[in-house]
Amino acid sequence: MRNKASELIRYLLLVNGIHRNVKFSNISSDIVISLTTLSERVDRIEPTLYSLLDQSVLPKKIIVWVPKYSVREQKNISVEDLPSIPLVEFRVVEHDLGPITKLIPSLIEYGQNPNQRIICLDDDIIYSRNLIESYEAESRKKPEAALAIIGYDVPANFIDKNRFDTKVYGTDIQNFVEVDVVTGYGSFMIKPSFFAQHFLTEQRPEEAYFTDDLCVSGHLAEQGIKKYIFPVNWGFSHLKRLSSWSDYSLSNSVNKDGVNNEVMMRYYKDYWNFK
């Protein structure tokens, strides 16, 4: 109960623009944080970024990949609108790859460093103060696996709504649990060495544009990389930013009927561990 109360207070402070000064002495990890955002969301991303700077252990760097032209918004990014925040690099990329833009540019960036640990996550979540410290510790226990806070198994009948019956939250478990799919909103950690070169240029079904979790997880399964949810003692696995409830999001628009997910579940059907 104490964890939940303190996390809710921190959440309310962050979403209202109140944050502690960044303690650069806390930089003791080589982990890189990677995420993407769109021009219409840039002015609301700061609470998420400051939740990643208000950490017991700071990352080496936070990179926010912003498409030069947003397909969903049908508009160009205004570089002048990008904020200046310590440890955060806003990087403009030529092509809008959809939500998987949170990952692919970082795989290219760190392609020559195959063991670079990269945490990918979403731009509308307030993350736990112990997020990076937890990944730092748990990734050393399973260095050859992808790790996450929230995941699920692909249902054998490929019906999207049935995946909710298999969801696993790090806040609800005591030991590592293997899953088919890791989720970006909960955050996940990978290394460039987990991905084959063709992942960067593969021609996937058009539905893949909206389903980064399944694209990433399906490819990892194809490469024989195991995915685990690890236990955490936080009060909440994640807390969604207040303004995001009214924002345009994939889950309340093009992904609402589950069809995109179902297409990608079938696309990687030969690689899931049906239980």
Return residue spans where pLDDT drops below 50 for at least 5 consecutive residues. Answer: none
Radius of gyration: 18 Å
> Judging from the principal axes of the Cα atoms, what is the shape?
globular
Ends: how far apart? 34 Å
- Mean pLDDT across the residues is 90
* CATH homologous superfamily annotation: Spore Coat Polysaccharide Biosynthesis Protein SpsA, Chain A
Number of helices: 6
SS content category: alpha/beta
Number of strands: 15
Per CATH, the architecture is: Alpha-Beta Complex
The CATH class turns out to be: Alpha Beta
What percent of residues are in strands? 15-25%
Quick rundown:
The protein has 275 residues and is of the alpha/beta class. It is built from 6 helices and 15 strands.
Question: Could you walk me through the main structural features you see in this protein, from its secondary elements to its overall organization?
Answer:
There is one protein chain. With about 280 residues, this protein is an alpha/beta fold. The protein has one domain (about 1-265): Alpha-Beta Complex (Spore Coat Polysaccharide Biosynthesis Protein SpsA, Chain A), CATH 3.90.550.10. About 20% of the residues lie in helices and about 15% in strands. The chain contains six helices and 15 strands. It has an eight-stranded mixed β-sheet with strand order 5-2-1-6-13-8-14-11. A three-stranded antiparallel β-sheet has the order 10-9-12. Helix 2 (about 45-55) links the parallel strand 1 and strand 2. The relative contact order is 0.17.
